[in-house]
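Re: export button greyed out
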Amino acid sequence: MDAPGPPSEDLAIRTRRLTKTYGDTNVVDGLDLVVPRNSVFGFLGPNGAGKTTTMKMLLGLIRPSSGSGSVYGLDIVDESPAVRRRIGYLPQDPKFYGHMTARETLRFAARFFFIGPQDGIDLRVSEMLELVGLSEKDDRPVRTFSGGEMQRLGIAQAQIHKPDLLILDEPAAALDPLGRRDVLAILDRLREDSTVFYSTHILDDVQRVSDAVCILREGRVAAQGSIAEVLAGNENTTYEVQAHGDLDRAKGLLETEAWVDAVAIEGDHSSGTLRIRVSDNDQAELHLQRRLLADESLVISEFKQLKPNLEDVFVSIVEGATDDERD
Amino acid sequence: MTSGIDGLQPSMEFGWRSGLSPLMRAGFGSWWTTKQWWINALLWTAVINGSVAVAVWGDAPDELDAYTLYGVMTMFGAIAVAILMQDTVVGEKLSGTAAWVLSKPASRSAFMLSKLVPNAVGVVATMIAIPSAVFMVQLVLADVGVSADRFVLGACVAALNLMFYLTLTLMLGTLFDTAAAVIAIPLAFAFGQQLLGGIPGLIPLLPWALVVPVDGSDTSVVSAVMTGQTIATPGAIAVAAFCCVGFTIVAFRAWSRTEL
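Workaround output, generated via the alternate export path:
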């Protein structure tokens, strides 16, 4: 059955049951991906979840075992060169020809899309060097570049033809905090013209710049939608209670409740914080405070429901998978 | 905001030609805009001509010895081709530059052609054409009668031997994911051919016979062609040519299915 979502003409990427199998292992398993046009779309998942494989299938570098996919309505297998005309790609660990300078690398990339005029191409190359802050290093051979400089050059070459879709595999992975900040600023500037589909492990960044996300788990979509939708869909809510008293006893009592998922004590066992993760927040709202107040040995100084962030959702999904495997 | 693509003319290369121009430009550039070409040209001119100079200018000058020595010395060039080419495809597969290039609108065929043609031109020019031209000058200066046609034809046979190793290494690069396998097989073959003399009728068919006299003959194919003598092992030409075509076809087919 097709995944629900907006009509195809509004989509940059659409996959249906996209699968890649190596031996007996489904690296990507029936993936239904829906990426709206002009969105900044975060593609998340633990290592080995199938993110890079999915990106490479979109680019025609890997052939799908089954299922289909399209980029702006173009089939990723049958119309791969046409698809690639509309995509700019930054690999996870970008590598370019070491003997070329940064300027030559961008000229080389530009020549796949444009035949001339030469001064126009050179102007575009200069613009891109400026965009990523490499104008001063344009004549240095690429082999002398640091990881961060390579990443910046990677963004420049991906954007050289002003693509409709940018696919960026871990664009900030090799960068220090300042470099990461700069990359996020660049992404923010690029969103005016392009759809940005990127993978990352830095979930704070995703929540800051993305419009929508997909969380991949073992090659399947575990959650997908706008940030608000994904956060709202989080089944686990956490409460934080600061208290004095017999925290161990309180923990033991709470753990007997069916709607309590896990209880942890932070700090001293007679004075500290109880972190209570609940699986049914309706029940928790009704009963949690009463249960705690019923224990007369406990003095509660603070009680709050933690607002879930993307990291909580991500961890909950990934840990959920691990728990399922253990069961 | 950037907008510098408005006046640019889009590339009109489609199908198998997609990306051919920039890839070819880069392929030739890796030879002719770097020091690679003159280092190889100098090295092989010195190696080949230094050796044949003994036969041309020595105490007992011998024309046939000079041509035979020329053929034998080009065999070292063939080994160098395998060493030079070992990383051409495997290196790009492992480093990720192949995946990067093929994420552009470039066909697999264009990519492979850009490895085959510029490298073939590069090695033939620097390891055969330039050293051979200097060899010819030596012969002329030593008053050895040289037929330009036969000389060029003989140099082409030596080039065929180089192409055998070039296409073999290229093919192995598409089939294996380690440089060790890609270099080991051509080198083992290059050095192992002389050990195959025990198999009746085999060695005259091997590329070895193109440049080295075998089976008690005084001439290799190269020296026979250059001196106008009867070619003792003509089968080697056909086998080498057939293998070059076969290796190239396998390389293109394997590359079209390679996952990056």
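The two ends of chain A are 29 Å apart (CA to CA). The button fix ships in the next patch.
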